[in-house]
């Protein structure tokens, strides 16, 4: 049985399991990038205030001709906006730039020490309204999640973390699974560092697929939400063409043992 394209979060909200990330997509390019993805059938767009492209994302969605309620949109509160009042203001700024009445998912971008508990309180307050569908975190390791649990009234529904075959973050993933937190993978292709791997190339060829498709399928079969980034329509189409095959047990076992704790992005413990 194929993995369905929607995943139900712990609060009952459904999120598309495959989305488009727009990190480092400039404001003047993100409009066409998002329109292209939506035209190909994507219904999940992940942005953030730090990306500086919320305006273009919102404009593309509004001009797409697709009902707003059919598109799942995520944004995030940046490090400079931690704290209860600051986070509430950051949410309003994001909503203004997106020109939306509501946001599907709002995340704390990074676990800034001593800041994120109060920031989470602000997200909990927003979550009492009809202006957000769900709240969660990004880049939280298991010890950050455990610290948050000491003061939180609600458990995050999502933890969006850097995750790819050579960085599997198993302790954080296990913590999330124990507590009903969905895991979402950013940089799921390791910033293209796998695409020329000869063993993965041979493995992918057995399915008549690319290495990128192979790895995205690995994420899906591990029950991760996955948000690969591409500004090119041909790559967006390739990344989405992953629901017509299933990895063998042997291939899943091989990919699952590739972990080397090879982090490409910043380490959450180093963020200040």
From TrEMBL:
Pfam families given in the database record: Aldo_ket_red
InterPro entries: AKR, Aldo/ket_reductase_CS, NAD(P)_OxRdtase_dom_sf, NADP_OxRdtase_dom
One MF term in the entry's GO annotations: oxidoreductase activity, acting on the CH-OH group of donors, NAD or NADP as acceptor
Active site: 51 (proton donor)
Alphabetized Gene3D superfamilies for the sequence: NADP-dependent oxidoreductase domain
Residues engaged in binding substrate: 109
Site (Lowers pKa of active site Tyr) residue list: 76
NADP-dependent oxidoreductase domain residues: 24-259
Keyword line: NADP, Oxidoreductase
Family statement drawn from the similarity comment of this UniProt entry: Belongs to the aldo/keto reductase family.
Record-given protein name: Aldo/keto reductase
Organism per entry: Virgibacillus necropolis
């Amino acid at each position: 049985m194929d993995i369905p394209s929607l995943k139900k979060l712990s609060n009952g909200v459904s999120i598309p399991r495959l989305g488009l990330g727009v990190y480092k997509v400039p404001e003047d390019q993100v409009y066409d990038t998002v329109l292209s993805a939506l035209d190909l059938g994507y219904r999940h767009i992940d942005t953030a205030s730090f990306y500086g492209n919320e305006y273009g994302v919102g404009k593309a969605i509004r001009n797409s001709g697709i009902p707003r309620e059919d598109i799942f949109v995520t944004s995030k509160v940046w490090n400079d906006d931690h704290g209860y009042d600051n986070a509430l203001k950051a949410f309003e700024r994001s909503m203004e730039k997106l020109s939306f009445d509501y946001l599907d998912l709002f995340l704390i971008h990074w676990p800034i020490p001593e800041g994120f508990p109060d920031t989470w309180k602000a997200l909990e307050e927003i979550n009492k309204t009809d202006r957000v569908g769900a709240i969660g975190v990004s880049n939280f390791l298991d010890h950050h999640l455990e610290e948050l649990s000491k003061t939180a009234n609600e458990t995050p529904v999502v933890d969006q973390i850097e995750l790819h075959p050579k960085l599997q973050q198993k302790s954080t993933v296990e913590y999330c699974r124990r507590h009903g937190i969905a895991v979402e993978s950013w940089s799921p292709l390791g910033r293209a560092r796998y695409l020329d791997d000869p063993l993965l190339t041979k493995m992918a060829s057995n399915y008549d697929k690319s290495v990128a498709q192979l790895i995205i399928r690995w994420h899906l079969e591990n029950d991760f939400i996955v948000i690969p980034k591409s500004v090119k329509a041909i790559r967006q189409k390739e990344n989405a063409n992953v629901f017509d095959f299933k990895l063998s047990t042997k291939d899943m076992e091989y990919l699952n043992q590739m972990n080397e704790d090879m982090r490409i992005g910043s380490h959450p413990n180093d963020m200040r």
